Structures are given as structure tokens and as C-alpha cells.
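Morning F.,

Quick status update on the modeling queue. The single chain you submitted on Monday has been processed. Sequence for confirmation:
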Amino acid sequence: MLREYILKFINEIIKMFPIKKNRCLIYSSYGANYGCSPKYVSEYLVENNPEIEVIWVFNQPEKYDIRGVKKVKNMSLKYFYYLSTSKFIVTNFRTPVEFKKRDKQIYIQTWHSSLRLKMIEKDAEDTLPQNYIKQAKEDSKKLDYLVSGCKYSTEIFKKCFWYDGEILEIGTPRNDFLLTIKEKKIRDIKDNLDIGDEKILLYAPTFRKDNNLDIYNVDYERLLNGLEKKYNCKWKILLRLHPHLINIMPEIKLENVINVTRYDDIQELLAISDILISDYSSLMFDFTITKRLCFLYVPDLEEYQSKDRKLYFNVKELPFKIAKSNDELIDKIVNFSNEEYNKSLELFLNKIGSYENGKASQKIAELIKNKESVNLK
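C-alpha cells below.
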């Protein structure tokens, strides 16, 4: 109760300061990282619109050295000041209850996927905590723009987001990177991870409600042997568990398996990967635009749908090969047909009505620039 009174007092005091029409406050995953779509909107603004002052909110700002942006610590007095005086707010998760939007502010929600397999928000209301549902409903009232990566996502947002405002059908800012990345950047990312000329497989599953690690029982040694036999070259496997599991992630001692769970930007990992293995994560849909191979390892398919989350798609009707055991996974990879996959992928992208063209960040920056020029008085 005391905390609420203090926050209310701080918000009332800070409202006395004017909104800065060229100031944009950005954060990702509630301040946990520098990544996802907010990162790519930020980088475009810094590179092309230096007149826009970009503020980033971090839980640990000392971890980051980012050109062209100002960093503030989450929940600090500076955070509340910039939150209240920024004309633009850009994030990929629900804003906290402490954000009391002012009349002249513009809130742009990028969300954290281009399309999703797991049901979200109102569609998953019976599986979500009541305090989150309350926060989500309040957040939707503050929204000015919601970003959509495809027609299918637009329809999902319309029925489940507690929002009836404008949806920007422009693609996903974080996917711009996958469509425009240069070879030098790929080399830089690999060097940072100490990877040479090996091919890369990324295993990136989502979390389960019970945080059970046993479900991620991929046989890495057999997988590496199968890959090297099929492709006649060396491979490395990157393991990227969901951020929810950072504090309990397993220790990996195999030479050619690197645990990259703490790596902030998953798009960089997708960009350098030749193959993706996932399960119910929306990453599979980002990866489709690279036209590279994706497999789903889902040993708990029926249990997941009954206990964790219902799905928007029948997994068996997706363009990706699915496996419920290590034997199946190795077999699917070794006997993979590129021709069949490419046809299925093209049909799927047409079905969902993808908007991805590498220019989503530019479109948001143009919106910010145009709105910034409007007189606030």
C-alpha cells in the first residue's frame, strides 16, 4: 500500500514536466535485455533519425554499451521522469501498472513475435494469472498502435488483445534483421561465439509451466553424428532455453554444444543458424522467412496442449517435420526432403499473409518522425 502511494506521488510530481516531442523511451522484456523488435526500431532511429532522443530502460544498465542512446535503470527516479516526459513509448511486452499514460503520449506495441503457435491473451485467459489479465486489459487501453507481422496475426490481435485500435500491418521489426543482414555481421556474431566454419544448428525450445528440464532431452552426440554424416561437414549446436529458465539451465559439457541461453538477441542466433529445432516457440515463424530448415521436437505434444497452452495451429499441418523422440528426430533430419519442405513453406507463408519485407523498423521510425513534427500545444 505504501509503495502505491509513493508511486502515485512520484507520477503526480513528474506530470508537472512537459512532454518532449522528440523523446522516445524504449524497453524490451520489462527491462531484461537489449533485443527483439524494440532493439531494431532503436537502431534505425539512431542511424537515420538522430534528432530523436532514444532512452532505453534496463534492469542492469551497466551491462550495456550502446551507441546513440541514453540508459536509465528500471524503477529509478530517472525512469519515472523519462517515462512521463517521452512522447513515444515502444515496447514488446505489456507496460507495467506504474505507466500512467498522459494525453499527448503515443504508445507503440510491437509484441514479441511475428506469429505465434501458443494461444495468447484472451484466447488463453483460463491459463494466465489474474493479475496479468488485469495488467493486460489496462495496458490495451493505453495503446495507440499495435504492430502485426502477418494477416493471421492481425486476426488474432483483433479477437484476443482487448484492443480495437489501429493495427500496423507492416511486418516485424526484429525480422528486418533476418532479411537484410550482411555477411560481415554474420562473421562478427560467429567470432563473438568462437565459431569458425562449422555449420550451426540452433535448439531453441520454449518453457513449460513446471519448468521441467527433462523434456529437453535431445541426444546431442547422436544429433551431431547424424548431421555430419548427412552433410559431410562439421557442426556446432547452440542451445538457447527460454529466459524463464536462466537460473536453472543445465550445464553442458560437450565440446560442440554451446549454451547461449544468456545471449540477449535471439535474432542474431537465428541469422547464423543453418537449422532450427524448436517446439512451441514463435521463433519457428520468424525462421520461415530465411527459408532454412526447421524441425519441431515435441515429445510432450498432447500433454502440453492439455496442461500448458492450447495452440492456434495443428502442429501436424505446419510445414515443419515433427518428432516425438530422439530416434524420430535423427531420422527426420537424415531423410529430409528440401523440395517437399520448400513447397510446404511457400503454401504456409501465403496462407498466413506475411507482411515481412525488411522495412518494419523504417515504417515505425517514419510514424515517430511524422508524429514528432505535430505541435503538442
